[in-house]
Amino acid sequence: MSLITWTKEEFGTNVTVADEQHKVLFGLLNDLHDAVPAGDRAAIGAKLVALVNYVVEHFAEEERLMTATGYPDYAAHKAEHTKLLETCSGVAAKFHKGELDITHDTTAFVKDWLVTHIPNVDKHYGPYLNSKGIS
Q: Is the pLDDT of residue 1 over 90?
């Protein structure tokens, strides 16, 4: 069962690369969420690594677009990215050391971050990037 579903109305930024990457992120989060009940640490670990690696890639692309266009809220946006990455990296490290289990609380945390961040922060760069010719 999906934890999160991308819709243009709720999550669309009007920046194609960001929207497509957000869809992939949602899919990876759903995959991790769906793996949790089985308790297979190897499968959960692989899905966790895939999600964290893609988050890194996605944030790098957003930040590249923002710096290339001189996005005025870049520093604040990057700070939010950095904070989430630090949290996710810490969780992943503890999981891989056997000090922490990934639960539905973990996936709910990531979902909550996404449903707050994308509509309230990412959607702000859409019009700016569009004005710079990025759609």
A: no
Residue 83's Cβ-count burial label (10 Å; 0-12, 13-18, 19+) is: exposed
- Kindly provide the b/e burial profile for residues 14-48, where b requires at least 16 CB atoms within 10 angstroms of the residue's own CB: ebebbbebbeebbbbbbbbbebbeeeeeeebbebb
Report the distance separating Cα 121 and Cα 10, nearest Å: 12
- CA distance linking residue 18 with residue 130, whole number of Å: 12
* CATH entry 3.40.50.2300 includes domain 8-131: no
Q: What is the pTM of this model?
A: 0.96
Residue 4 and residue 24 in contact, taking contact as beta carbons nearer than 8 Å = no
